[in-house]
Amino acid sequence: MGTKRSAKSHAWNQRQNKDIYVREARARSLRSRSVFKLEQIDRKERLFKPGFNVLDLGAAPGGWSQYAASKVGDRGQVIALDRLKIEPIPGVKVIFGDFLDSPVIADLNDILSEITVNLVISDMAPNLTGIKEVDQPAMANLVMMSATFASQHLGEQGVFVAKFFEGAEAQNVKKAVAQLFSEVRVRKPDASRAKSAENYIVARRPIKSDI
Fold first, then answer.
1. How far apart are CA 126 and CA 114, in angstroms?
2. Contacts of 5 (CB under 8 A, 6+ apart)
């Protein structure tokens, strides 16, 4: 077992050292290579504007929040949520907790009730088992819960961006999000590894209920 783990660790380290995005993240003192996924989606979708209020779900280690803060500037606000520790980021309010916990959602509701949220971004994923039949439904549930939450708090022109997995549950995820937003499309940024099942859903203009 130890030999197998060592071989996997060595292979992972080799892949990281060869990864152009890992090298670029290190050179630019960014917290993760995933920043480039958001940056590339932003170039296509023009997600950010100075003064925007942004909620980053599953924000650790803080790369997406770091990028968001650089885009919204001093007039904007970035709120980062994760159950893992996030080192302080200038211009970012960090909330420690699990998005699936009711008390955490209640705290978020209180904070967001005082501002207009322009953008909700999520690079969240469940604890993965490596078993598709387990991981894909768990991921789908996480995306649908965050999409519902986002639709309730975003302003009329608000945008929701979230990672999801292509696979058996993908169509259900897309349909569920399409019921909550007026426009939905899928992006696969170049920084997302080709072999990865991850894609990103971009949903615009939440459909507000009259009830």
1. 29
2. none
Question: By three-state DSSP, how is residue 194 classified?
Answer: coil
And the tokens for 97? 């907790």
How big is the CA angle at 154 (ends 151 and 155), to the nearest 5 degrees?
A: 125
Q: Give catalytic residue positions.
A: 163
Which fold does the domain 31-206 belong to in CATH? Rossmann fold (3.40.50)
pLDDT tens digits for range 159-209: 999 999 998 899 999 999 999 999 999 999 999 887 888 999 999 999 977
Confidence of residue 74 (pLDDT cuts 50, 70, 90): very high
d(CA 119, CA 160): 6
- How much is the CA Rg of the chain, to the nearest whole Å? 17
CB 69 within 8 A of CB 90: yes
